Amino acid sequence: xxxxxxxxxxxxxxxxxxLLLGTVAAIGIMPIKVLKAEETVKENTTAxxxxxxxxxYDEGKCIKCESCVRICQETYQWESDTPWRRLLKNxxxxxxxxxxxxxxxxxxxxxxxxxxxxxxxxxxxxxxxxSKCVGCGYCLYACPYHAPHIQKKTGAVSKCHFCYNLQDxxxxxxxxxxxPTKALTMGDMKELSQKGNLDYKGLPSSKITNPxxxxxxxx
Amino acid sequence: xxHWGWLIAxxxxxxxxxxxxxxxxxxxxxxxxxxxxxxxxxxxxVSAPIVAFGAFLLIFDLGQGLKKPWLIIxxxxxxxxxxxxxxxxxxxxxxxxxxxAFFVWKKRQAPAVISYLGAILALATAAYxxxxxxxxEGIPFWNSYLMPVVFVVSALSTGLSLTSLIAHFFExxxxxxxxxxxxxxxxxxxxxxxxxxxxxxIYSGSQGTIAKISANMLLTESLSxxxxxxxxxxxxxxxxxxxxxxxxxxxxxLLTSNDQNSALNSERGxxxxxxxxGAVLVGGLTLRCLIIFAALPVWNGILS
Lengths: 219, 304
Hints:
Chain A: This is Anaerobic dimethyl sulfoxide reductase subunit B (DMSO reductase iron-sulfur subunit). The complex is a heterodimer of chains A (219) and B (304). Chain A has 219 residues and is of the alpha+beta class.
């Protein structure tokens, strides 16, 4: 009699175990669905901030002088291996000057546990407050464009802030101001997004964070 | 890239391990692991210290937070951050598990609400360790809803192994319940299925080519030796075979009821069982390390 009983018991166990694992799976899956749902809701509401400014890069006009990178480094003194702005080049002669893209859905701000990131409602600039940063590195994984970097000296993240302090006093960002050929410009994303996007040469899909930057590829 | 390394992997492992140990003792207390179990105490006792130690390790992975620890308190602030959720879940779990452990240690009956709250928080802790990675869209390999499932099953399995190991050395009365082997067989089998589904989802292409490159690192390239040896063979297939044999031999022992033979078998089985529990723990730690080390960003920062 006993072996049969054993089998029956273990079958019941199997069902119990199955139920338990099902619950576990549901607990794991549900929050992701909630998060995803939250995202789609966000995407559907078009205007996230009152205004969203962004960068525009015209590849055909760029002479690859790197003045934009140099003026940025001179002004903000970032360490060379943790750049705020880079001029990306490939061997086919393509180039792209890129910094933080002040995304409409900034992944960095979403994951930062200490709320060091803030997105200004007046112009959509994403500003990182290094004094709050604990240096956990979560935003470095979250940002698809490698904009935030941890500075070795301070152990805190730093990144481009679109020279918001200069913009508040009426002048433009240093990189845009110094560009000799007007390859790098800035503008309202309402107009810029009519001219292009950032889905270019292996860059990540702009659907992830909605970057406020467009590239006009050379003909 | 690649700022998270060993410390984070060990933290994710310990988070799951502590939560799993709590759940193992909870299951034993509820009679799910057999009538004569000795697993109903030690898991409770070790769970909070293990998770707390893991969280403590995390502090050493911080940049500025290590120099200015008062900033860490702000990690409770951002409700949209999964890391913030984790800080809440872990803090709550550590508190509740400590209270429960206190009752167990004093040999008093804890209020049922404490035990159940602890169990729910333990599940949340185990799920959180996977969620932390699963929500990162910038790392396609992690960005899978099966990630928390794999982590939770591994947490239950490693937690049960640790509880069995500690009970063997520290509990006075020794029992070997068939039920434990059966449950563990189910857990290891589920983990294999979940892991297979995790890779199948990646190779189906739904997470893009970068996720496939990460998966290739584990299956055939730079990380393939620890993957196949430590995780698959030692951590999963070995224990699977052992629990399968044990479940069968127990059935046979019941049929023949040859006392001498089964006593000999169970002693030998006892040692192998300890090795097996150790192997499950090795597999669990290897899993966390491999997942962290195989992370590749959705874009490598170069123009193609």
